[in-house]
Specification:
By secondary structure, the chain is α/β, with parallel strands linked by helices. It is built from 19 helices and 22 strands.
């Protein structure tokens, strides 16, 4: 007992010191980011105060400038340049030069960069969310959930575990290489190119940037033409944080433009991360094939929301409405296909109908609204087309939300949340990605049936399964062919930033997030070295030294059996044969000489 007391005291003292150390706040520099030109204080310049009417069709996808406006009010925000191919290559060259210096930095310096960003984000949540809201039409609450919390969680995970997963990882060396040490090293790839969508303008910039920079890379991010105004401000935050630690100012670039800009980026970088549609993803793959660079594609989905007959209907109905409103054209994490067990179908429809009817949409910064505007012009026409197709084939609308005060110039930017029943898989609504606040609800009778329905899609991003039995929900989720699954919850996987994120089929391939996403930005190098150098070195056995001996193949046969045989006695016998042949003094040259005589 006397022996253990000192150890217990030391352990307690160590734990106490660790706890007290945690109470000491780290010294993190503060940064100032100029924001006067993006704040809507009612005193905007006259030239930026008019209502903007964007062109329809392909004309809005080209030109020398990208026009920016608030989708919730159609108020003009200004413009940014559409970079040419040569301008993109010039930006990439600058980042490549800066990356060579950044690759030599310590993880301590990289963590300081992350802490500076985290400190700024926490102190300026309202500013970041307001800018996201103005540029995409989403509410402040949606911006907080999708932009702030996810990014802070990403930073926190990298601070806690990032270095651990980028250090050399030692592996077993196998039976034939017992005298060797085997490891995997993770080196920066160089310059990462990211082409991101408009739905999370803040997080979609920070997500690939954090991973790339922490793993020692530089990065060029082509932001969406539908969210360029906010992206240019968010870039200032990154530049200020880099300057605060004395990092190369060109390490991160944010570029704006249309298709030509993205194509130029793909042809200039060492890896591409793309978030967008399957059609554009295929074009990026074709372009990346020219230089044989790796590609990560996250191409959206048609996520399923499955409700079994043994759930708390009130609880799940609230989650279901949140899931569908996250598809309201502002967030891509929403569910788009709802399958409800026929035993509780009527009750569930009644509950969600009541909630949806209470939902109000309107300009998110003009009042307390549950839902904002659609970000993309003309998107409401696509949603109406999907609903009309379903109605023509027998579906029925049972509930729609309401609108608050909407200016007549922005009426096309809003779409009421809609509950629609009597749907089936012959309808476009159940097959095509809607990206809107539509809840199509379909009945199922058995677990086997709902698994078949869930897998009847060209997409495979995510699923959410609800059941009073966690084992049952887990079993259903395991049979759905998708990249992420939530059991008795919705979209919780993305808030666990230690997990990879991505899909299968037309939802893409590759992963960002987690260990897999971090290492995907690395050159993964296998390394073998002598374990006991210089005392034990690799030496080629006599029988297989050039010129090889007559018994060279016999030696190899015995060596293979000695190393990998299934029977221990046969392995020992083979080992004896190996040792015997190693001790024989019968070089190949002498064997050949005897034969010639």
């Amino acid at each position: 007992m006397a022996f253990w007391w000192p150890l217990l005291v030391l352990a307690f003292a160590y734990g106490l010191c660790r706890f007290l150390f945690m109470l000491i706040p780290p010294k993190v520099p503060s940064i100032d980011v100029e924001a006067s030109d993006v704040l809507d204080d009612g005193n905007q310049a006259q030239e930026n105060s008019f209502i903007y009417v964007p062109p329809r069709g392909t004309s809005q996808q080209s030109g020398k400038i990208v026009q920016c406006y608030e989708p919730a009010t159609m108020k003009y925000l200004g413009y940014v340049p559409a970079l040419t191919r040569d301008e993109v290559k010039d930006r990439v060259a600058k980042v490549r030069k800066a990356q060579k210096m950044w690759a030599k930095t310590s993880f301590k310096q990289r963590r300081t960069f992350l802490r500076i960003l985290l400190k700024y984000i926490i102190k300026h949540q309202a500013l970041i969310c307001e800018i996201s809201s103005r540029d995409t039409g989403k509410t402040m609450v949606d911006a907080s959930l999708g932009e702030i919390m996810t990014t802070c969680e990403k930073i926190n995970w990298l601070l806690s575990e990032g270095e651990q997963w980028l250090k050399p990882e030692y592996r077993s060396s196998g039976r034939s290489m017992l005298h060797k040490r085997a490891k995997v090293e993770f080196h920066p790839l160089g310059v990462i190119g990211a082409i991101v969508s408009w739905n999370y303008p803040f997080h979609n910039i920070f997500n690939p940037m954090l991973t790339a920079v922490f793993s020692g890379n530089g990065i060029v991010i082509k932001i969406s033409e539908h969210a360029s105004w906010s992206g240019c401000f968010y870039f200032r935050i990154i530049q200020s944080a880099l300057a605060a630690i004395g990092a190369p100012e060109d390490l991160v670039e944010v570029i704006t433009g249309f298709a030509e800009t993205g194509e130029a980026l793909v042809s200039s970088v060492d890896k591409v991360i793309f978030v967008g549609s399957p059609g554009v993803g295929k074009m990026i793959m074709r372009n990346a094939a020219e230089t044989l660079i790796p590609v990560t594609l996250e191409l959206g989905g048609k996520d399923v929301f499955i409700v079994c007959d043994d759930v708390d209907v009130d609880h799940v109905a609230q989650i279901a409405v949140r899931a569908v409103l996250q598809s309201s054209g502002q967030n891509c994490a929403g569910a788009e296909r709802f399958y409800v067990h026929r035993e509780i179908y009527s009750s569930f429809v009644s509950k969600v109908t009541k909630i949806i009817k209470s939902v109000r949409a309107g300009p998110p910064l003009a009042g307390k609204y549950d839902m904002g505007a659609l970000c993309m012009h003309e998107h409401s026409e696509k949603l109406e087309g999907l609903i009309n197709d379903a109605l023509d084939k027998g579906a029925e609308i049972v509930a729609r939300g309401s609108f608050g005060h909407i200016g007549e110039d922005a009426v096309d930017q809003y779409f009421p949340p809609t509950v629609i029943v009597n749907v089936n898989h012959s309808m476009r609504l159940m097959q095509e990605e809607a990206f809107g606040p539509i809840m199509p609800i379909m009945k199922f009778s058995s677990d086997e049936e709902v698994v078949k329905l869930a897998n009847d899609s060209k997409y495979g991003l995510g699923c959410a399964v609800f059941s009073g039995s966690q084992d049952r929900a887990r079993d259903i989720a395991s049979q759905i062919h998708c990249g992420v699954a939530a059991v008795n919850d919705f979209a919780a996987t993305y808030m666990c930033q230690s997990l990879p994120f991505g899909g299968v089929k037309h939802s893409g391939f590759g992963r960002f997030g987690g260990v897999e996403g971090l290492r995907a930005c690395c050159l993964v190098k296998a390394v073998v070295e002598d374990r006991w150098w210089p005392f034990v070195k690799t030496k080629i056995p006599k029988p297989i030294q050039y010129p090889v001996a007559e018994n060279a193949f016999e030696f190899q046969e015995s060596l293979v059996e000695a190393l990998y045989g299934l029977n221990i006695w046969e392995r020992l016998q083979a080992l004896v044969n190996v040792l015997k042949m190693l001790t024989e003094q019968n070089p190949a040259g002498e064997s050949i000489k005897k034969k010639n005589n």
